[in-house]
Amino acid sequence: MREKDALDKIKWDKRCKPEEYTVEFIDLGKLKSIKYTDIKRVDEGFMALDINGDETLIPLHRIRAIKKQGEPIWNR
């Protein structure tokens, strides 16, 4: 499963509760973690984040893990 598929499943699968998920990614050489609910949209190749009202684009290849309540459901 690709990272986009995992992110889309969280959004569209009615059994998933987006507020339970976090996404870890590399930014400027450091591992960062965001709440799934901070993601505005996921397109081919990137996710758009809403950080303090500003849109930030993060390439999907930077994602290292997607976690549900701290437990990995997807990782690179």
Description:
This protein has a single domain (3-75), classed as Roll (SH3 type barrels), CATH 2.30.30.10. By secondary structure, the chain is mainly beta. It has one helix at residues 3-12, and strands spanning 21-27, 30-35, 39-43, 46-51, 54-59, 63-68, 71-75. Helices cover 13% and strands 54% of the residues. It has one helix and seven strands; from the N terminus they run H-E-E-E-E-E-E-E. The radius of gyration is 11 Å and the shape is globular. The longest helix is centred in the N-terminal third of the chain and has 10 residues, at 3-12.
CATH superfamily: Integrase, C-terminal domain superfamily, retroviral
CATH topology: SH3 type barrels
How many DSSP H or I helices? 1
Mean pLDDT: 94
Roughly what percent helix? 10-25%
Strand order of the largest sheet: 2-1-6-7
- Report the uncertain regions: none
**What structural class results from the helix and strand content?**
mainly beta
**Approximately how much beta-strand content do the residues carry?**
over 45%
Number of strands: 7
The CATH architecture name reads: Roll
Coarse shape: globular
Structural domains: how many: 1
Based on CA atoms alone, the radius of gyration comes out at 11 Å
Measured between the Cα atoms of the first and last residue, the distance is 10 Å
Please give the largest β-sheet.
Answer: 4 strands, antiparallel
Q: Strand-and-helix sequence, N→C?
A: HEEEEEEE
Please identify the top-level CATH class: Mainly Beta
Protein traits:
SH3 type barrels; globular; 3-stranded antiparallel sheet; 54% strand; 76 residues
